[in-house]
Amino acid sequence: xxxxxxxxxxxxxxxxxxxxxxxYLTPLELDVQVVGHGAEALIEVNxxxxxxxxxxxxxxxxxxxxxxxSIKASHPEVPIVVMTxxxxxxxxxxxxxxxxxxxxxxxxxxxxxxxxxxxxxxxxRQQAMTEGAxxxxxxxxxxSENMQHVYRTIDSASNSKASIFITGESGTxxxxxxxxxxxxxxxxxxxxxxxxxxxxxxxxxxxxxxGHIKGAFTGAATDRQGAAELADGGTLFLDEICEMDLxxxxxxxxFIQTGSFQKxxxxxxxxxxxxxxxxxxxDPWLEVTEGRFREDLYYRLxxxxxxxxxxxxxxxxxxxxxxxLLAFMAREEExxxxxxxxxxxxxxxxxxxxxxxxxxxxxxRHAVVLYQGQEITIPMLPPQLQQFVESEGSSNTTDAPSxxxxxxxxxxxxxxxxxxxxxxxxxxxxxxxxxxxxSTLYRKIKQWQSMKHE
Length: 454
Hints:
InterPro entries: AAA+_ATPase, AAA_lid_NorR, CheY-like_superfamily, Homeodomain-like_sf, HTH_Fis, P-loop_NTPase, QS_regulatory_LuxO, Sig_transdc_resp-reg_receiver. By secondary structure, the chain is an alpha/beta fold.
């Protein structure tokens, strides 16, 4: 990419939709050009190489897949995001197998589009995805209301120097969140250095954080830079901060207050400029009240709190994440998998995911590595999910369809329609009775309407 505004080519034949999506991207200060036909897109790509292509798969003159193949053949380095209607996710996954970096389900929210476009443009600028477009799986996937709040917080806080304290269960993506904060900040061209306070032995963590000089202790054969020095100008991420020893917490507090530190074995002060992001899967205030975490350090770090919701509270994101992971892992393992059976999809929605996104990654990796085919079926899943099916009292652990089980979205649709009818069309009152945000109902209604027109 050049130093000028990134050039985005949007291939969308419905003018009103194109104008709406273009307006969504206005805050990113991009050079967005819109064309309505596949042939026009191919001409424009050859005239001026875009930094990103947003490609609708339904075009009036040619199939979107054909446009995708042509662009990837002539300009393989150009990232392409495909846009598809609800209900055509399998097609989008096939597009990712052909080289698309990600997909958006239409109609999409403004925040979803902005975050995805911004992340991809930054990632390619930093050459973070040179190992393949599939690396996108390491970023956030999901459009639930809870995650929209996370995205907005990142956008708002990224350019501040204020410390951010991330909380959330294990496996919710706290390091991914820290990387996203760094990528969205003005420090994105500087280092992002992560240190896991729980994974390093107590007697070595000070050296890992601040570095040491030769001879400082047995085995210190040379001078060594620590994470604080390596992160100068960038972001220092302290994962599992509540595991840090109290004595080291005192030195960390002094470092945060002054920006200066001493290497182990040295009396010389080093001064750096770092932005602090930390994370824990514990309740940090409980750690303070029980004497395991310094209260003054807590107030220094807990400036902008950011809570990552568990997967079970992300309103259907599990399926979007699962498809994104499947596309990446199938390509990485050179397998033909492109979809899940409906029974697997329903199981994924019901399962509580105690290990969150990390557990979902392991489940899909297990199936992709050990089996062959195009569909992931229930017998391909690891034992814990099979046991969950059995514990539900199901006598059928195969993928044979059941005439007595209604798809979850149909049951949800009936409940929402009943609530709206009860309150004579008042969506806000219906949302209150269902204990959800009104925007959630409006989004679901919009999705169902779009399904009718497919």
